Amino acid sequence: MPVSFPPTFLWGTATASYQIEGGAQEGGRTPSIWDTFSHTPGKVEGGHTGDVAVDHFHRRAADVEMMAGLGVGAYRFSVSWPRVQPTGRGPAVQQGLDFYRGLVDDLLAKGIKPVLTLYHWDLPQELESAGGWPERDTAHRFADYARIVADALGDRVDMWTTLNEPWCSAFLGYGSGVHAPGRTDPVAALRAAHHLNLGHGLAAQALRSTLPARAQVSISLNPAAVRAKTQSPADLDAQRRIDALANRIFADPLLNGTYPQDLLADTARLTDWSFVESNDLAIIKHPLDSLGINYYSPTVVSSATDSHVVRNDNHGVSDHSPWPAADAVSFHQAPGDRTEMGWAIDPTGMHEVLMHYSRMAPGLPLMITENGAAYDDKPSADGRVHDPERMRYLHGHLAAVHQAIEDGADVRGYFLWSLMDNFEWSYGYTKRFGAVYIDYETQTRTPKSSAYWYSELARTGVLPDVPVE
Ligand code: FCB
User: Fold this and answer.
1) Which of 370, 393, 397, 415 should be mutated for ligand 1, with most atoms under 8 A from CB?
2) Is residue 310 pLDDT above 50, yes or no?
């Protein structure tokens, strides 16, 4: 039986501003926290920065042509906050808005649906210097910025995402410090998580009051499929703690308007959470039109007797934990093959997460806003880039998505991370997630075999077999 997706299913690819644009000092753009971080020695592998990235800022039109050639119907991109509102306050810069308006017009002209993310981690440095996400004011600044972008692009973009993976912003940015701004303060991380939630709610309100009724407002989370190593009470408690810090700290306020009681109790020795003000949860619970889910690999935990666990949090190694007040938890890789990131390949986690959210939020459409894999791709003698492992990874995960739909989950679309190789945060350019290969010397773009495979899927809606190459 062929594995067929619904005819209305949206097929897309995804990128993010700092990872692809370059043009870091052009058009009035000011530094973001990722400019500062990547220019700080020792923070990013190889000292790589996003100064040039894949030069999308100058190659926008050709990149859209390339997407059109692949026949994929949607494109998820993010707007660089310091490109449209330098320093994060005050009026917008026309040149910055014009870049994104041009991008959207190019996409629409090719019949590609633009899906816009307002924040994929590039906070204006000036806002970090004023305290960043641990400070409440940043949430208000974010809502002002959301209104600026909605005013400029609301007539032509229908799908809006406030934040990408607030877990990473809060806990990798302010907890383990492997992401910008590189702070290692567990209380700041918890405060950041709340102000990101609040920023989402305030921005959702701003979008709703500015955008036409047809517009859809969403947020992309990276829910963890958290598994206990054994069924011992201690390991199950480790699972509960990490589930609270990875998942429920965002999902509960967004969908139910509450913070989990066990999270408040677990973290009580660090903070009394008095930074949560009386109306905040009602603001955060703003109705969503869909929920974006980014999934790559499951998380396996056990209780640890060693209270100082050095762990790989899937985005870099640090001896500061990204998990406030959960020091006595060890992390393990799930069994099986791994990608080049070292992440275990386990599509059952995709199914698990989709089923969990469809039960938790009945009636709320789900969208997979990221899924994909890094491999050490290289052009072969014939000039082509063969990436059978990536096709196998995608095939397995898409079969899991299909199964979730069969099992009743209302999944409306899938965005492959990523359209093209790019700046993989603290790994710099050493990890290649693209369906399109980038030669960083020449900026030549070469679609990998997976790009053609995915293109067939997007055109037919039927999951193709993985060719033997
Ligand atoms: C996600 C990020 C995305 C990319 C992938 C591999 O956490 O949202 O930018 O780095 O991981």
Assistant:
1) 370
2) no
* H-assigned helices in 49-135: 56-70, 81-84, 94-109, 125-129
Confirm or reject: Cβ of 425 under 6 Å from ligand 1. Answer: yes
Identify which of 397, 293, 263 has the alpha carbon closest to the alpha carbon of residue 353. 293
For the residues 317-345, what does the mean pLDDT come to? 89
Residue 227's nearest CA partner among 88, 335, 115, 140 is: 335
Calpha distance 244→299 (Å, rounded)? 13
CA–CA–CA angle 253, 255, 258 (5° rounding): 30
At 274-293, the pLDDT tens digits run 999 999 999 999 999 999 99
Q: What is the pLDDT of residue 300?
A: 93
Q: Is the CB of 417 under 6 A from ligand 1?
A: yes
CATH class of 10-460: alpha beta
**Residue 370 designated active-site:** yes
The model carries a pTM of 0.98
d(CA 395, CA 63): 25
Structural domain boundaries in the chain: 10-460
Q: How many CB atoms lie within 10 A of CB 123?
A: 24
pLDDT tens track for 313-326: 555 667 788 999 99
Instruction: Name which residue sits closest to atom 10 of ligand 1, judged by CA.
Output: 424
Would the CB of 433 count as within 6 Å of ligand 1? yes
For residue 449, report the distance from its CA to the centre of ligand 1, in Å: 22
In the annotation, is 21 catalytic? no
**pLDDT of 141 strictly over 50:** yes
Calculate the alpha carbon distances from 321 to 34, 125, 346 in Å. Answer: 20, 24, 24
